[in-house]
Amino acid sequence: QVHLVESGGGLVQSGGALRLSCATSGINFKITPMAWYRQAPNKERELVATVTPGGSANYTDSVQGRFTVSRDWARAAMYLQMSSLTPEDTALYYCNVPWYRGRTYWGQGTQVTVSS
Q1: What's the rounded Cα separation, in Å, for the pair 85 and 18?
Q2: Does residue 32 contact residue 100 with C-beta atoms inside 8 Å?
């Protein structure tokens, strides 16, 4: 069974930083693309960043230059380093595998709250 487990969320002041982690199991991590999504209250879930199996990342414009995605192949984990956080970054952040064994997979989400 595929499992994605996020951690690292919390409450941070505007301008602060957090690192989110996504621990994976049940996937061939070395060949599986992954992504981070987020969903704020009363807004649709939006794509934050994608990362290829080799570690090449792309970001949505609103986080470009502030967020960095990385992969640890030894630990089968994906990370999201977030800096210069603003209240607009407040959301539930999800780890995502777009396609594996016929469907997409999601973690349970970790809450990031940025105070002004």
Answers
A1: 8
A2: yes
For the beta sheet containing 77-82, the strands, ordered from the edge strand earlier in sequence to the opposite edge, are 3-7, 18-25, 77-82, 67-72
Q: Give 23-71 pLDDT, tens digit per residue.
A: 999 999 999 999 999 999 999 999 999 999 999 999 999 999 999 999 9
SS (H, E, C) the chain: CCEEEEECCEEEECCCCEEEEEEEECCCHHHCCEEEEEECCCCCCEEEEEECCCCCEEECCCCCCCEEEEEECCCCEEEEEECCCCHHHCEEEEEEEEEECCEEEECCCEEEEEEC
Residue type, 21: S
Beta bridge partners of 38: 46, 93
What's the pLDDT score for residue 27? 96
Q: Are 7 and 23 in contact (CB under 8 A)?
A: yes
Q: Which two tokens stand for residue 107?
A: 């973690």
